[in-house]
Predict the structure of HTH cro/C1-type domain-containing protein.
Amino acid sequence: MPAAIATQGFGADVKRVRLARRLTQKQLGNATGYSEGYVSRVEAGKKSPSEKFAAGCDLAFGTGDLFSEQLRRILYGERVPEWFAPYVELEAKADRILDYSPVFPMGILQTEAYARAVFRAGPLAAKGEDTTPSLAARLDRKALLDRPTPPLLWVVLTESCLRTPVGGPALMQEQLGYLARLAEHPRVTLQVLPYRAGAYPCTTPFTLLRSGGWCAYSEFPVGGRSYDAQDFVTECMDLFDLIRARALGPDESVSFIQEISEDHRNG
């Protein structure tokens, strides 16, 4: 469904529920923190609603997360699975991101060719589904680092993550070269946890994100989930500290990435 039509449908639904609740546009605007004119334009399909407005509608109407979920489907559609959409929203708002990548570099650190190869080997392709929308969504997320003030990003990658031959030697050289260049970004810190560090403290990828407060995200074989329970977040933070303490320093990590790239070149 085209986004413009979906937005019109959202506006019509807001109007329908507002009238059923006997609220004026001004009252809904006051309840959501927006002007009467803003509400009018959203209802007419002339203004794309914000996530804050959708959440405000749910609160004002007592509709749970109905409008938030509807907006999420409009924004992401089939580009990301429903279980991953909350992470994408968190990532977009975060000012600090700590990531542990034991299998593949996190999505925003992948080149287009590498990401395409990862999707080609994944469950979507195995089921015969089109991976193009998911690839486009992943590449769009890379714009995060091009903002005037991008989030502070600290990533620990395992050596196996860098040595696994995704897509072949040439593709791996391109990917590792990209990582080495990203490490020069003033808001990015990369570390490598080498084989010689011994058993990995954790084999599951996870990400910590700060947007106001901290939350954690972890993936499973068939999905992922975000957590904001502070006990869980603290456990993940402690685990991340343990992992990065055992990893190579940032400068040594870049040199090591370049060495592994040469290993891919030489076969």
